[in-house]
Amino acid sequence: MYKSELSKRLISGFSIAFFAYWIIYFSSQTIFIAAVFLVATIAIFEFERAIIGRGTPLRSVIFYFSHVLTFGAGWFFWKEDQENALICLAVLLAVNILASLFAKREKETLGIFWYTIPSVWISLPFFLLIPIRFFRLDGIGSHLIFFLVVTVAFNDIFAYFGGKKFGKRLLAPKISPKKTIEGTFFGYVGAILMGSIVYSIYFKGTFSYLWIVITIILVTFSAQVGDLLESKFKRYCGIKDSSNIIPGHGGVLDRFDALLTAIPLFWILLVLNEI
After folding, report:
1. Residue 217 and residue 79: Cα distance in Å, rounded?
2. Cystine design at 223: which of 3, 231, 248, 262 (Cβ 3.0–4.6 Å)?
3. Residue 162 burial by CB count (10 A; 0-12/13-18/19+): exposed, middle or buried?
4. CB atoms within 10 A of CB 27
5. CA distance 161 to 167
6. How many CB atoms lie within 10 A of CB 57?
């Protein structure tokens, strides 16, 4: 049973990694944007199903409408069309407020919160992959995404095995009872190690190593917070996985939880470094 589950995880994991690598490095702008939007939409579906499944009186269509508006606002800001971007944000806010006012139960006061969360937590981070991919004309954007993914992935891998071998003190027992302080430390070690290797291959002479190390530390911290946030969300909704769309791995939210908080911070650090 264990070997079968491990094989399933490995096969699906390598398949996803191969597809992601092709999308990051070889897809056209149109295909890349379509792929990012599709994966983000699946994550929105998982969020919507989980929160409505808990019995929260919300309307499914609002989540998807907000998702489209968030991508629209991001697109216009990226193209420096602030007027249309602000229109999208205004419509997004108005729709979320009106939808929350017409909740099915008068006692429901968190409608605006739950309608807004996926735009900030899911849609925006996924959209930011687009300007990161096309950050410069020299093609460095693909390397940046690869650097981010590798850093976050090896934080997760080292944290898992380090915690399994040496973990004694629980990090957040009420949220994620398996995560340990020792595992968190090993996560930083893995992230710095692999992030430094990617830096030496792609970014030497482009960014200072000090900036890279600071970025790795901040991004790793953000990724670990994202992991805990998704664990808290699943515990709140009473579910084990966000879905079973990825054999052996759960859902899109389960695989991207750490990246969802790491991406916005990484984008901010990139922009500040360019100023």
Report:
1. 31
2. 262
3. buried
4. 16
5. 9
6. 15
Classify residue 2 as exposed, middle or buried by CB count within 10 Å of its CB (0-12, 13-18, 19+): exposed
The backbone torsions φ and ψ at residue 178, rounded to the nearest 5 degrees and listed phi first, read -100, -15
Nearest alpha-carbon partner for 40 in 15, 72, 14, 64? 64
Query: Residue 145 has which token pair?
Result: 């995404």
pLDDT per position as a tens digit, 204-220: 888 999 999 999 999 99
pLDDT band at 122 (very low <50, low <70, confident <90, very high): very high
- Between CA 220 and CA 227, with CA 222 as vertex, the angle to 5 degrees is 95
- Separation between Cα atoms, residue 47 and residue 114, nearest integer Å: 10
Concatenated DSSP letters of the chain: -HHHHHHHHHHHHHHHHHHHHHHHHH--HHHHHHHHHHHHHHHHHHHHHHHHHTT----HHHHHHHHHHHHHHHHHHHTT-HHHHHHHHHHHHHHHHHHHHT-SSTT---HHHHHHHHIIIIIHHHHHHHHHHTSSTTSHHHHHHHHHHHHHHHHHHHHHHHHHHH--SEEETTTEEEEEHHHHHHHHHHHHHHHHHHIIIIIBTTB-HHHHHHHHHHHHHHHHHHHHHHHHHHHHHT-SSS-SSBTTTB-HHHHHHHHHHHHHHHHHHHHHHH-
Contact 58, 117 (CB under 8 A): no
Both tokens assigned to 173 = 């027992």
Q: What is the token pair recorded at 86?
A: 């602000």
Mean pLDDT value across the chain: 87
